[in-house]
# Entry
Amino acid sequence: MPEESKGNSEWRLGDFLNAVTAEVDRAQDALSLKSFARGMSMSLQGLSLDLAVQVRVDDRGQPLFRSAEPGEPCATILKLQLREAPENQLEDARKRLDDGGLGLPLAALPEITPQQIATLQGLSTFTVDDLRRLCRTPASLAEVNRSTGIPELLLRRWLGLPYLLRIVPPAGRPGQTAAIEGGNLGGRTGGESIFFGQEAATVLAWEETRILVEIPAGTSTEPVYAWIDGARSNVLSWAPGTPGCR
# Structure
């Protein structure tokens, strides 16, 4: 839990940015309404913040920030500039944002709990499409997982993104056969790949929930992951050199 000093709580940068961007979203909504009412176009193009902060690193090596009190000596200034990113700068997107899901409430997601809905709404996320926007890249999806505590595999299942559950056996030698189990893997169309580190595996069979591959040569202790329809899956651990086959 964050420590407090003089009533001033410590915060993580990611949590602070989530709160700021939620406020920016509300400001954009207000400007949109004013634009409609006045028949003119107004939008918020960016936000610049200069913050005097105290910084420490906790026992897990994570930096924690605390806003400096008025008059408190402080040599650390945190400068933040938020700007809208053009679409062509966003990578690893799986689907167009207008391909279904528009307007559906979060409650439409299977097995979502009221607590999970409330947590996502705290990130200014109110519809399925909002969630898709929030999880455009593997990095942003991982941040949503960290911020909300919602498992990454569950987020991927909700959004139709590929996910891997396990590899059987969890270790092996080049040339052996391994089965990779998961979901949203689709049917094979020729553009999908399974990687052991940097090495692409030979695919022997491909189904919606199971892929059979031949372990490639040159693999080392690196993660196993899939590229499907332009989207990267989560990763699984892999330990080469240990006998085992299926």
Observations:
- Residues 89-159 form one domain.
- The first strand starts at residue 4 and ends at 5.
